[in-house]
Amino acid sequence: MNPLVTPTWLSPRLSDPNIIILDATLPPVGVTPPVDTHARYLAQHIPGALFFDIEELSDHSTPLPHMLPTAEAFSRSMSALGLSDKNTIVVYEQEGVFSAPRAWWTLRTFGAQHVHILDGGLRAWVEAGLPTESGPVHRTPATFHATLNQEAVKNLSQVKEKIANHQQILDARSAARFNGTAPEPRPNLSSGHMPGATSLPYTELVEDGRLKSAEKLRGLFQAKQVNLDQPITTTCGSGVTAAVLALGLEVAGAQEISLYDGSWAEYAQYPDSVIEKTT
After folding, report:
1. Residue 19 — very low, low, confident or very high, per pLDDT cuts 50/70/90?
2. How far, rounded to the nearest angstrom, does the alpha carbon of residue 13 sit from its chain's CA centroid?
3. From CA 270, how far away is CA 258, in angstroms rounded?
4. Helices (H), 185-262
5. Which of 78, 111, 207, 244 is least buried, going by the fewest C-beta atoms within 10 A?
6. Does pTM top 0.90 for this prediction?
7. What's the DSSP call for residue 205?
8. CA-based diameter of the chain, in Å?
9. Using an 8 Å Cβ cutoff, are 25 and 93 in contact?
10. Over the stretch 74-107, which tens digit does the pLDDT of each residue have?
11. Which residue numbers are catalytic?
12. What is the CA 196 to chain-centroid distance, rounded?
């Protein structure tokens, strides 16, 4: 099933109590001072939308960025926010395609059955002439039963096993970081890539601020010699844009998709991790 929905689909369903809308916008990387995406949410959002704070909802017991929390912690957070795992959930972001797929992937990985992404996000909604509102939104607490789908997320040892077995790994970082010709944004980390990985910057999946069509995505994956019928693991710098690849793969019809949650922030910090550079 295509996980994308349109503003035209969502608009007549705004009053449906079973539909939850989430703004899952992370600040863009490298912008100084940092963009306050929560303030932007408070200033303008789709009516009834809640703010899904990816950073706040991550596991803070690890120094790695944006890691999945425990199922118990996620259950508590979502229940307090007013989400049930039975709800139909529509995730969007304020601009472009960057962080909403991470929220989509997180919710699905913890067992939410009906999670969609608003194609084109808030910009498409506003351009369609549809209403917005401002201020905080509160929902009555609900019950979210989070169960981690172990097949959807990979750890360091599983990824190293995939490397050893020459399985498909797609890297969403920029080509320069993948090649080792540009530095990593995190200090003391070498750039480069995992042996056998394929470079596919997440920006190549995006066109005019939204995900490319299924047909164009299939053409892109074919050009990169990606076999959609075989297992594929996505990775990036910190596990966020790897979810853009996971979304694109799902739209294109891939059969078995997983995401390396620790991504390069974890892999590159270990001396025994093999790092290749393209000269």
Report:
1. very high
2. 24
3. 22
4. 214-223, 242-252
5. 207
6. yes
7. G
8. 56
9. yes
10. 999 999 999 999 999 999 999 999 999 999 999 9
11. 236
12. 23
